[in-house]
Design goal:
Layout (H helix, E strand, L loop, with lengths): L1 H16 L2 E7 L5 E8 L2 E6 L8 E7 L3 E7 L6 E8 L4 E8 L7 E9 L1
Antiparallel strand pairs: 1-2, 1-8, 2-3, 3-4, 4-5, 5-6, 6-7, 7-8
């Protein structure tokens, strides 16, 4: 019984530690995206219409200052994206990577919500 209670308390604590959301927009576009931490190393991505076109972003690095998220595109072989969010300032950068197409980075800002 003690182990069960301890497991339950730890699961509640761990889910609240990682509960955070980033509401991000890129400069010069109307694009808005929400990144919500769903596990310690996975973020859920939702656009402003509630559509989850590429629903999961993998956390590849995190420090006290920044998080680095990487996503892949199932519809576009040999491609992916890297997002960097500064947790202190809300600065945001995105670059799309592909073996077929060159792209420029996008920059913007994020509002941070810790739960």
């Amino acid at each position: 019984m003690t182990k069960l209670l301890l497991t339950f308390i730890l699961s509640l604590f761990s889910s609240s530690v990682f509960a955070e959301s980033y509401f991000c927009g890129t400069t010069g576009t109307d694009s808005k995206v929400i990144y919500e931490r769903s596990h310690s190393d996975v973020f859920r991505r939702t656009d402003e219409n509630g559509y989850r076109d590429f629903p999961f972003e993998k956390l590849v690095y995190e420090s006290d200052e920044s998080i680095y998220l990487m996503g892949s595109f199932q519809d576009f072989p040999s491609s992916g994206s890297l997002k960097i969010i500064n947790k202190r300032t809300g600065d945001y950068a995105v670059i799309f990577l592909s073996t077929a197409v060159a792209t420029e980075p996008y920059y913007g800002d994020c509002l941070i919500k810790d739960e």
